[in-house]
Design brief:
By secondary structure, the chain is mainly β. The protein is about 5% helix and about 45% strand. It contains 2 helices and 8 strands; from the N terminus they run E-E-E-E-H-E-E-H-E-E. Strand 5 and strand 6 form a beta hairpin.
Length: about 170
């Protein structure tokens, strides 16, 4: 739905097929122009945070940039997400969830992070990749530690998600 002020209201009611394993994330991905990189959000920060990894963070309003959100791991991987956000603004994009959501903004696509073996091989994109996630499963895995606890996995039988998105040209 689009309102008179230009806000896009997305609403999803769906059932999860238990035939599949748990989802790593469920949400919406956008690619924005890279000319505006200011970020403001209200959620866990200032460090990256996930459902199973946010004890070093606290809930507040944070002002940062896309570049400062990037975590420079030797092996490129998922990074820079922020858990339990009420709203997030990246450049001209403003998003607000009916329930808290996770979000991420990066100069690197998921494909770029997946295809490169080392951080020095990464090539910034010509845009900003923004993930607005209903939820994201926790980071822990049995690749380098214990198996991800079920409470941090996306396994709901029913998913109900609402998020509003607005592009503001005033910035």
């Amino acid at each position: 739905m689009l309102d008179l002020e230009g806000t896009i209201c997305l609403s999803l009611d769906g059932n999860f097929d238990k035939v599949f394993p748990y989802l790593p994330r469920f949400g919406l991905g956008l690619k924005l122009p890279n000319d505006k990189t200011d970020v403001t959000y209200y959620g866990y920060g200032p460090y990256e945070s996930y459902s199973d990894k946010h004890r070093a963070s606290w809930v507040d309003r944070f002002d940062t940039t896309v570049d400062d959100m990037f975590e420079d791991y030797v092996f490129p991987q998922e990074n820079g997400s922020h858990y339990n956000c009420q709203y997030a603004s990246v450049g001209n994009l403003f998003a607000k969830g009916k329930k808290p959501f996770s979000f991420q903004a990066s100069r690197y696509s998921e494909k770029e992070l997946d295809e490169k073996a080392h951080n020095f091989e990464l090539v910034p994109s010509d845009g900003i990749y923004v993930a607005l996630d209903y939820k994201q499963s926790g980071i822990g895995s049995n690749s380098c530690g214990p198996r991800l606890a079920e409470k941090y996995q996306i396994r709901e039988e029913k998913i109900e998600w609402e998020i509003s998105i607005r592009f503001d040209n005033k910035n």
